[in-house]
Amino acid sequence: xxxxxxxxxxxxxxxxxxxxxxxxxxxxxxxxxxxxxxxxxxxxxxxxxxxxxxxxxxxxxxxxxxxxxxxxxxxxxxxxxxxxxxxxxxxxxxxxxxxxxxxxxxxxxxxxxxxxxxxxxxxxxxxxxxxxxxxxxxxxxxxxxxxxxxxxxxxxxxxxxxxxxxxxxxxxxxxxxxxxxxxxxxxxxxxxxxxxxxxxxxxxxxxxxxxxxxxxxxxxxxxxxxxxxxxxxx
Length: 234
What we know:
HAD-like_sf, alpha/beta, hydrolase activity, DNA polymerase, domain 1, 2 domains, PGP-like_dom2
């Protein structure tokens, strides 16, 4: 078994429970403020969340509803800017919380000297405040977001940028994801991937992962990580 020197985490749905009661709420508030009748219930958002990137998700939705592509993209861009502002407020209000076991796992990895990084398709404007609020400042050595890379998951661009900046050895690095898009991105970057699925991704094809778990506190995931760190975690 290879020693584990670094872990690269996804954010949405992996480190934090941000989709249903964070992003979805912010999108719906943005719709209402703009005087639109659009509304994403839990099931609708579960379908749309397969589309990475909030602006792309909005544009897809508006095109589905009959708007031409140019109009859909323009409206999506405006609404996404406001949605990000709302999301930052929800984060400051404590509405977006870490998934069970996330803080504990990060504390253990840090104590063992394992590098902790982030590769996400979310935008820097809300990812930074969220990570600081949920886990404390400077807990992650490198944070790559959709602001720094043009191609979103399932493209491996975010992971490749983390590897480029850090020089991490792929053989001693693992990604932790929650979705099919994320697993595909990590594997395409040449990384092993652990999948910590959530209710929105329970039916995703996660077969590319070396292990599929029900969360960051799931014993099989913890044992996989603990068996590979330089000093066994307790």
